[in-house]
Amino acid sequence: MLSGIGGASITTATAYIADISTPEKRAQNFGIVGMAFGIGFIVGPVLGGILGEFGSRIPFFAAAGITFLNWLYGYFVLPESLRAENRRKFEWKRANPIGSLKHLGRYPVILGLVASLVLIYIAAHSVQSTWTFFTIERFNWSKAMVGYSLGMAGLCVAIVQGGLIRIINPRLGPNRSVYVGMMMYTIGLTLFAFSNQAWMMFVFLIPYCLGGIAGPSLQGIISNQVPANEQGELQGALTSLISVTSIIGPPLMTNLFAYFTRENGVIYFPGAAFLMGAILVSISGILAWRTLSGRFIK
């Protein structure tokens, strides 16, 4: 619970990026957050594994130390992002999940995009929650091989969201970036579902990770619909909804995997969760297209 409360720093980070970014650069800069997670996804497990050799508590102390250094940097070095004229008086009635979500209702034009983003995050749990189970069940991978594959996934995410999005987004524009990204997500998840050779999982990471251009582009479009002095509240509402997907996604995807891999089952299909993810992303794409083809999106 304490860790979850501390997770509000993610909301603050995305709001900070929204504050200091021009509208046309927001999608690219939101990708930096994804890149940071990708790098952390590579370095963190390796560092934790090495430090764990010195004792099971050492990785936790190290993580606490790194977090403390982060706090020092944020408090004493990082400048304030929001201009004084764009700041608002703090109100407790808005500083809670319900008040934050109600805030989205003030901008009905973005509700379709928010629903689209939520579906993407639920779909992502098909990979996050079942990758290890799937690869062990389908290919009998070792723990080390699972770790290598996750490291490769983190590297691909870092490359796409930290580098390629800065090239792709300006050329395609935010709307097309959303469409192309969702198409890549759908292709990648579908290929995962029907893969029958271990090497395929590494190759199919390419289209799946290229789908990572959709999320930051969608988040950038949503951010551009909200005034400068409400970016923090918007990002808080989005983070709350994304947290809800972490309640829905894992049980949905793991139960699908369990159902289609059970003994004496009618159909044996370990990739069922990936296929469900592909279906959800397709629905997400339709919602995004219906909203973005309207006249009220900036």
Can you characterise this structure?
There is one protein chain. By secondary structure, this protein is mostly helical. The chain is 76% helix and 0% strand. The protein is built from 12 helices and no strands. The protein has helices at 2-6, 8-20, 26-52, 58-76, 97-104, 111-139, 143-172, 174-194, 198-210, 214-223, 231-259, 272-292.
Question: What key phrases describe this protein's structure?
Answer:
mainly alpha; 12 helices; globular; 298 residues
Query: Helical residue percent?
Result: over 70%
Q: Hey, roughly how much beta strand do the residues contain? A: under 5%
Mean pLDDT: 85
> What general outline do the C-alpha atoms trace?
globular
Number of strands: 0
Helix/sheet category: mainly alpha
